[in-house]
Amino acid sequence: MSQSLTQPTPPAPSLADFALTGDLARPARLTVPDLLAWPQHRVRVSFDCATSGVQHHGFAGPLLHDVLRDAGPRFDPGRRKDRLRFLIAVAGADGHHVLLTWAEIDPDFADAPVLLAVGIDGTSLDRAGPQLVLPQDRCGARHISGINAIRVDGCYPARPPAAAGRPASPD
Predict the structure, then answer these.
(1) Within 13 A of 156's CA, how many CA atoms are on the CB side?
(2) How far is it, in rounded angstroms, from Cα 32 to Cα 15?
(3) Could you say which of 19, 132, 164, 166 is the most buried, measured as most Cβ atoms within 10 Å of its Cβ?
(4) In degrees rounded to 5, what are phi and psi of residue 34?
(5) What pLDDT does residue 140 have?
(6) Distances (CA, A) of 164 to 160, 169, 170, 171
């Protein structure tokens, strides 16, 4: 009697995901395939890397602003310019962190085309996770690979207490 030796099929590698948290109406866990639901933008980037010199890459993905806007940042509609006090913290699986302001990505202010890249040089980032890409930066220091968390934070006083003898400034 012969036995058939079959190798079990190895499980498919899991998709990388990241937590979208903070002062949002709709926090979520997202993957690269989830990010494909937003309009995709393509950019060619050249940046100077301290460890490996000038790098040239093509990235594709949605704008960070579009993804965060859809998550429903909890801006106070009764406060003019409330969104300008919000911070965006991005963390990568390798321990790198970046802090951005809402004004940097908001079309009414700096309108920086910051991407959550889902692909680099035609290769999908499904398994590695999305990358934060700031095409306007000359240096690649704010580029984050393998994003594992994005936190939107507006939970600090919108108006600090007035200094003694000085009225609080209007916003």
Answers:
(1) 8
(2) 8
(3) 132
(4) -60, -40
(5) 83
(6) 12, 13, 16, 19
Mark the ranges of the chain whose per-residue pLDDT is less than 50: none
DSSP-derived 3-state class of residue 118: coil
**DSSP assignment letter at 44:** E
Q: Which residues contact 85 (CB under 8 A, 6 or more apart)?
A: 102, 154, 156, 158
C-alpha span between 99 and 33 (Å, rounded): 25
- Model pLDDT for residues 140-158, shown as the tens digit of each residue: 889 999 999 999 999 866 5
Q: Which candidate, 25, 20, 63, 30, places its Cα nearest to that of 152?
A: 20
Phi, psi of 101, deg, nearest 5: -105, 155
* Separation CA 91–CA 128 (nearest Å): 14
Contact status, residue 156 vs residue 171, Cβ threshold 8 Å: no
